[in-house]
Specification:
- The structure is a single chain.
- This protein is of the alpha/beta class.
- The protein folds into three domains: 6-144 and 265-327, 3-Layer(bba) Sandwich (FAD/NAD(P)-binding domain), CATH 3.50.50.60; 152-262, FAD/NAD(P)-binding domain; 347-445, FAD/NAD-linked reductase, C-terminal dimerisation domain (Enolase-like, domain 1, 2-Layer Sandwich).
- 30% of the residues lie in helices and 23% in strands.
- The protein has eleven helices and 22 strands.
- The protein has helices spanning 15-26, 41-46, 48-67, 81-105, 178-189, 209-221, 312-327, 356-363, 376-381, 410-422, 427-431; strands spanning 6-11, 31-34, 109-111, 115-119, 122-125, 130-138, 142-144, 156-157, 170-174, 193-197, 225-227, 232-237, 243-247, 253-255, 257-260, 264-266, 299-301, 341-343, 349-353, 366-373, 387-394, 400-406.
- Strands 1, 2, 3, 4, 5, 6 and 17 form a seven-stranded mixed β-sheet that branches.
- β10 (193-197), α6 and β11 form a beta-alpha-beta unit.
Length: 448
Amino acid sequence: MADYDYDLFTIGAGSGGVRASRVAAAHGAKVAVAEEYRVGGTCVIRGCVPKKMLVYGAHFAEDVQDARNFGWTMETCRFDWKVLRDNVLKDVDRLNGLYTQTLENHGVEIIPQRATVSGPNEVTLGDGRKVTARHILIAVGARPLIPECKGHELGITSNEVFHLDELPRRILIAGGGYIANEFAGIFNEFGTHVTIINRSDTLLRGYDQSLRDRLLQISVMKGIDFRFNASFRGIEKTEDGCLRVSMTNHDDLEVDCVLFATGRIPNTEGLGLEAAGVTLGERGAIAVDDYGTTNVPSIHAVGDVTDRVQLTPVAIREGQAFADTLFGDKPTKVSHDCIPSAVFSHPPIAAVGLTESEARNKFGTIKIYQSDFRPMKNVLAGRNERSLYKMVCNAADGRILGIHMIGPDSPEIMQAAAVAVKVGLTKDDFDATVAIHPTMAEELVLLK
C-alpha cells in the first residue's frame, strides 16, 4: 500500500469533523485537522451554544415581570447587552479551548490553516504545503445565505449578530425559519422592536401547522410585526445612519439593523472538489452514500456540507459512524428518520416524527390527540399564553407517528418522548404510564 502523511485528513473542525477525527485517532489512525478559524465550528462559535445563552438571557425579561405575582419586588432592574455579550463570548473561548484540548489529548494534529483538496489523496494548505492522506474528510459545514439585492452588504448574518456593539432599537429579520424566529424572540425580549420579513406566508416550514399558527399568534401578541410575501428590493443607509429597506408588496421600512436569516448553504465554494472529481449536488452539497463516502472512494463528507439534515447532533452521529466504519471495523449507517428537533423561540417548539398533514398523506386514516392548556406558572403570573401538545397516531394500530409541542421547556420534555416515537410505542403505552403531577410533561400521558 502507498505511504501517506496521514491516515485521515479532516478539513473543518466543527462538530462532525471533531468527532470523526477524535474517534478515528482513538481507533489508531494518524489524523490531522485543518481549521482556518477556530476549533468548534458553527455550533460552538457562532450558532447553537451562544444563541442558547442569549435565549436564557432573554427569558429573564418575562421572569422579572412574572415574579411580581409570586411576591418578588425588584426596584432597580436594567439590562446590559454588553455584559451578556461579553460573557457569552468568554464562554465560547472556553469551549474552543476544550474542543482543542480534546483533539490534542487524542493525538490529533491541528493545523490552523485553510486547506483545499488538490487530488483524491492530496490536500494543499494555505501556506502552499501539500500533504497526502489515505482518506480525506470534508466537514466544513454551511454558511449563511445572503439575498442578492442592492445594499445587501449593509446587513448582518447570524455570524455577526453575537458581536453587536449595542442593541439596535429597531431590527428587521429576514426569513421564516428557526434562526429568524429564535432571534426575533431574543431581540423582542431585550426591548428591540422586531419586524420579520418573509418571502412566503409560512413560518417554520416542515413543522406542524398547529404549532406554526400558535407561535405566530403568540409572537404578534408579544409585539413582533410580520411582513409576509415580501422580497427585498434594496437597502440604503440614510443621512442619520439608519437603514431604509424597500420591499415588494409593502411600504418601505426604516430600521437600525437588518439581520439575514434566510437559510444556510454548504460551504464548498473554493475547496477544489470539482477538480478532484467529487460530485456536487444542488446548492453545492457534497453527494455521499450511506457511509459518508463520495463518488471518489478516498474522499468523504459529514454534517451540513452534505445538506441532508443541518443539525449538530446529526453531524456528530455522522462523524462517529464514519470513523467507526472506516477505522473501527464497525460499518455503521446513520438513520435520518424520526430526528427530533427544536426551535428556541419564545415560547419554544419541539417536534419528532410526522406532522398531521404528512401522516394523512402517508397513512390515510389517523387519530389526533391534543392538549391546549395554560401552564400553571402562567396562570399565577397573569400571562395568557397557552401551550399546545399534539400527538399524531396511526388509526390502525395506535402507533405514535409524531409528537409536536409548543410551550415552556418543550425541547427538554421532547428528548424523552422522542425515544418513545423512535421505538414505535403506541398511544396505549402512553395512557398506561402514570403522570408526574403537577407538571406540563404529564399532558403527554393524559392526551384526549
